[in-house]
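Project outcomes to date are best conveyed with an example. Our students and postdoctoral researchers have been running inverse folding experiments weekly, and each run begins with a structure described purely in tokens. The record below, which covers 260 residues, was selected by the lab manager from last quarter's runs and is presented without edits.
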């Protein structure tokens, strides 16, 4: 009888073990331009895999890359600039090769004025006193905003108007709350339902380096089946549809038309 109980216990463990491994909780560190898109993707993902426990943490790509280098327990890293996952790979901190998941776009957006009728040249106007951008030192969208303003020849002229946010989501919040008159923000944030009441101006992508966004499974998440399952899910039509809805360009798609 004792032998039978032992065999039964082993069989039960064999049946339950794959499920427990499959349901291992994991943490995603993601650039804040993904705040709404990735939230929606995870909701759809959990409809298919309800047993999985996913934690989302948003911030600037540069800050999160530094945190991973310093041992932060993030399983997957979604960066607004693939350069950061590539640097982590060089440090031996990744379990997969960095993969491009989207191309981001920049827009002018304001809750106070019609940004759709504006260009970067209008940022020098006296009616604009504060311009919100993400901190160029560690946020890719901030870097690209600086590049675009330098291309337009207005960067030096607007220095005393700039207010720097920790990340692009905070820059959008500044513009939305009125703490800034206008923001140079991610298209993905401007397309969130609560912000769609205000029109935007799509900044010509030739005015800055591409916002080539990449993700990577870190060494921390290397042995979690659930992590690879989510990474695979990002390539599904369901995930792609959500990314496109938020204005991201998929790697295989042509860039949409830009405003002059």
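After processing, the design step wrote out the following sequence:
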């Amino acid at each position: 009888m004792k032998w039978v109980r032992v065999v039964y216990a082993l069989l039960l463990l064999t049946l339950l073990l794959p499920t427990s491994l499959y349901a291992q909780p994991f943490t995603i560190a993601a650039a804040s331009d993904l705040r709404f898109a990735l939230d929606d993707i995870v909701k759809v993902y959990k409809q298919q895999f309800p047993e999985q426990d996913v934690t989302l943490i948003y911030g600037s790509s540069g800050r999160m890359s530094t945190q991973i280098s310093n041992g932060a327990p993030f399983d997957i890293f979604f960066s607004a600039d693939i350069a950061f996952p590539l640097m982590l790979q060089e440090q031996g901190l990744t379990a997969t090769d960095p993969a491009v998941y989207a191309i981001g776009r920049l827009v002018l957006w304001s809750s106070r004025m019609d940004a759709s009728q504006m260009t970067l040249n209008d940022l020098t106007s006296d009616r604009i006193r504060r311009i919100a951008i993400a901190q160029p030192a560690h946020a890719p969208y901030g870097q690209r905003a600086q590049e675009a303003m330098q291309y337009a020849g207005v960067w030096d002229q607007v220095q005393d108007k700039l207010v720097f946010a920790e990340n692009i989501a905070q820059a959008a919040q500044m513009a939305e709350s009125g703490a800034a008159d206008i923001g140079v923000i991610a298209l993905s944030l401007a397309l969130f339902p609560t912000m769609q009441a205000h029109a935007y101006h799509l900044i010509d992508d030739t005015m800055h380096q591409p916002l080539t966004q990449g993700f990577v499974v870190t060494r921390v998440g290397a042995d979690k089946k659930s992590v690879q399952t989510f990474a695979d899910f990002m390539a599904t039509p369901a995930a792609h549809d959500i990314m496109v809805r938020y204005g991201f360009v998929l790697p295989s798609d042509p860039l949409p038309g830009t405003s002059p």
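Confidence is low (pLDDT under 50) at residues 1-21, 254-260. The chain is about 35% helix and 20% strand. The training component of this project remains on track.
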